[in-house]
Amino acid sequence: MAIERTLSIIKPDATNRNLTGKINAKFEDAGLRIVAQKRIKLSMEQAGKFYEVHAARPFYGELCEFMASAPVVVQVLEGEGAIAKNREVMGATNPKDAAAGTIRAEFALSVGENSVHGSDAPETAAQEIAFFFSGLELVG
Ligand code: CMP
Is the distance from the beta carbon of residue 112 to the nearest atom of ligand 1 less than 6 Å? Predict the structure, then answer.
């Protein structure tokens, strides 16, 4: 399988509870390398732009307010089949459906406050990485 890169976000519910290290350990234990990472505070406008694809959904406002409510850690994960592997490590969007041992099963509070985001396909991974990182920040 090809080496891929995917965009990951450790969300406000997790940074508020000081879980960044525990979540990063899950990625690294699964063979994903954290090749870029920064802690930032999103504005409502930035959160809205990032989640623009969900603009018509009833939870969009709540989602943007949550993502702008406290710092997030944005990161690029790299590895064989990294996009699918990251989704496996994260678990299902709703923690009630997430498999045992996944990040969302262990740490998520609800479908909204679900601790992590991960890109869902190669095209979105490329777009989402470029949203947060410049080429100069991606040293491998
Ligand atoms: P994420 O992978 O970041 O992509 C979109 C996010 O919308 C998703 O994770 C959830 O956090 C959020 N989301 C999805 N469904 C709901 C919902 N029913 N209510 C609130 N937030 C939701």
Answer: yes
**Euclidean distance between CA atoms 15 and 33, whole angstroms:** 20
- Its pTM stands at 0.97
Task: Name which of 90, 84, 77 is nearest 116 in CA terms.
Answer: 90
Of 64, 87, 93, 110, the residue with max ligand 1 atoms within 8 A of its CB, to mutate for a pocket test, comes to 93
Three-state secondary-structure class, residue 28: helix
Confidence category of residue 78, pLDDT binned at 50, 70, 90: very high
Q: What DSSP string describes 118-138?
A: E--SHHHHHHHHHHH--GGG-
Q: Tell me, using a 6 A CB cutoff, whether residue 117 lines ligand 1.
A: yes
Question: Distance (Å, rounded) from C-alpha 87 to C-alpha 89?
Answer: 5
How many A from CA of 111 to the centre of ligand 1?
Answer: 6
**Positions marked catalytic:** 117
